[in-house]
Amino acid sequence: MNNFFEKLRFKNKKGHLLEKPEHKWIAENRDIADVFSELSNIGSKYKNLSELLETTVFINSSGQYACAIKADVNIIIIYPELCFLMRNRRKEQALAILLHELAHLILEHQKNGVENDKAQVEADLFSAQLGYGEELLLFLLDQVQTSQVEMRVSALRRFLNIKERASVQSLQN
Ligand SMILES: [Zn+2]
């Protein structure tokens, strides 16, 4: 019996994100499935991200069904606003946000007790480093401009400016 569960768990862990039973809600909607397929593609290019994706469960907070989750998996809760972005073809913004959330797990912010403002900026910059900085900036500019959001916006702008200048330089060289 024990053996059976071990095997099942192993199989689930190695399976594609969309094939996990917990991710039925993702596979059922074409637009949402599209975003997560892309996330999986991005993940496959980076060892730490692909390992994290194997052990992360994405939960739809407005889901109808109960879901039991083992304690050794990471959990990312998807709120209706993010589902809205995915369903309305704002795929790149949704990916920017998902990468931000994955960054909190990769950088172990919770475990290391990183201060919230710093954790948000670090997660944003992780997403930006993977090429989603501009999308994230657009998303943040759409939010209520609290002091934390303003700080995140200026950190992203600094990052994007530096990147822009670097690419201009490489064109000139
Ligand atoms: Zn965050």
Structure, explained:
This protein has 173 residues and is mainly alpha-helical. It has helices at residues 2-14, 24-27, 30-44, 47-54, 80-87, 91-106, 109-112, 116-141, 147-172; strands spanning 56-60, 74-78. A two-stranded parallel sheet has the order 1-2. Helix 3 (30-44) crosses helix 6 (91-106), helix 5 (80-87) packs across helix 6 (91-106) and helix 8 (116-141) packs across helix 9. It contains 9 helices and 2 strands, in the order H-H-H-H-E-E-H-H-H-H-H. It folds into 2 domains: 1-89, no CATH class; 113-173, no CATH class. It binds zinc ion (ZN). Zinc ion binds next to helix 6 and helix 8. Zinc ion is lined by residues 100, 104, 120, 123.
How far is the first residue's CA from the last residue's CA?
64 Å
Percent helix among the residues? 55-70%
The total tally of domains equals 2
State the low-pLDDT regions, or none: 4-13
Order of helices and strands: HHHHEEHHHHH
Structural class: mainly alpha
Major beta sheet, specifics?
2 strands, parallel
Instruction: Give the strand line-up of the largest sheet.
Output: 1-2
Write the layout of secondary structure elements.
Blueprint: H1 2-14, H2 24-27, H3 30-44, H4 47-54, E1 56-60, E2 74-78, H5 80-87, H6 91-106, H7 109-112, H8 116-141, H9 147-172
Parallel strand pairs: 1-2
Helix pairs in contact: 3-4, 3-6, 5-6, 6-8, 8-9
This protein binds zinc ion (ZN).
